[in-house]
Amino acid sequence: MANVIWGLATSHVPSIGAAMDNGKTEDPYWKPLFDGYAPARKWMAEHPPDVAVIVYNDHANAIGMDLVPTFAIGTADSYDVADEGWGRRQVPPVVGAPQLSEHLVRELVDSSFDIATANRLDVDHGLTVPLSVYCSEPGEAWPCTVVPVLVNVIQSPQPTAARCYEFGKAIGQAIRSFPQDSKVAVFGTGGMSHQLAGARAGLINEQFDRWFLKKIENDPEALAALTREDYVREAGTEGIEMIMWLVMRGAMSTNISRVHDAYHVPASNTAAALALFDDLGDRPETAT
Amino acid sequence: MKGKTMLDTDEQPTGSQTKARDDYLLDVEHTRQGYALNQMCGSLIRAENRARFSENEARYCDEFGLSPEQKQAVLERDWTAMMNLGGSIFYTFKLATLDKKSMQYLGGVFTGMSTEQFTEALRSGGRRFG
């Protein structure tokens, strides 16, 4: 049977990808951020998953305003890297895991999550930057297949934080009922506090971010209890992306341990963070 | 955390010279109002569309059915007006990218700061409210 081996929460700021693509990770601006990633990357490289379920949002690249699904899952064999208006990132195409996608879709619909499905999906920085956070030098191919899970965090009303947490729980159950032996990592992406437009542009709320980083491990219910207005006020109009971390957390078991986290301001206009959790499941904590 | 100091604050930013609203919540009414504008900006992810836009911006806007106000905002690069007329930053940023303008430049526009001031505010830990 499949199981969730770890969960990674990470910001997906495009400039983080650009810094890697353009060899700027040692620049003074970027070095502290990438130094913060190093212990997590080392651990993840030692615990490679077969499949990554990546919870993210599209940024006007594959999903326009013609049709806005609240939750959607990619079901394709592969996903092209999107040209977001400044040329494609020079990273490998993303190979899908269509059997797991199909299983997740069926199980989720049976769990009353009536999600949309996508047979064609050009994946943008929301998905590829987290992949690069996991694996900075993939060479010709990413080291795992991918199931993209899309959440609408751009058009209001976004799904509630509580619904995202429940959605994650349903995803976790579905993964654990997948009949193939498969090691699955779940990525929750976006955040932390940031706001791109309006008079509050440039907002950073470190106090809220650090509280969120702490609570996501052992008290996600406190985060699920916040309203979307709470998220917008505290974390900014784009900081509401953090509800996608709750999907990741929901997919993990209650028995997790924190491997590493890092917090850095700024990554362009955003507070950037990473939090990596080992899913112990039935295992005792010492068995890592 | 749901204590009084952070979540119940009514404080709003003051002092910046900007006509932008504090927050743009892209609710369904906003995105309906901004549909043509956002679709036009979103189309600029394709190189052939960027070329056609640059050839004749006004004609390109007309093809997408922008309102006169939206079209004027685009032609004048009035970034705040675009937001007030239903724009989404993820869409209008495609136009900014075509102009080789950064998100820090736009942040400065929305907050009444220069790009340098805005960038420095982020490097100093970001702007705090409440």
Give an overview of the whole structure.
Chain A has 288 residues and is an alpha/beta fold. Chain A has helices at residues 14-21, 31-46, 98-110, 125-134, 161-176, 206-218, 220-224, 228-235, 243-251; strands spanning 3-10, 51-56, 71-74, 78-79, 94-95, 116-118, 145-151, 183-189, 256-267, 270-279. Chain A has an 8-stranded mixed beta sheet with strand order 6-3-7-2-8-1-10-9, sandwiched between helices. In chain A, strands 4-5 form a two-stranded antiparallel sheet. In chain A, β9 (256-267) and β10 (270-279) form a beta hairpin. In chain A, α3 (98-110) packs across α5 and α5 (161-176) runs parallel beside α9. Chain B has helices spanning 28-33, 35-42, 47-55, 57-63, 68-75, 79-84, 89-98, 103-111, 115-123. Chain B has 9 helices and no strands. Chain B has 2 domains: 28-99, Protocatechuate 4,5-dioxygenase, Chain A (Orthogonal Bundle); 100-130. Chain B is mostly helical and 130 residues long.
Number of domains of chain A: 1
Radius of gyration of chain B, whole Å: 17 Å
Regions of chain A with pLDDT < 50 over 5+ consecutive residues? Answer: none
Principal-axes shape call of chain A: globular
Please trace the helix and strand order of chain B, writing H or E for each element: HHHHHHHHH
The main pleated sheet of chain B reads as: none
Largest interface, Cβ cutoff 8 Å: A-B, 47 and 55 residues
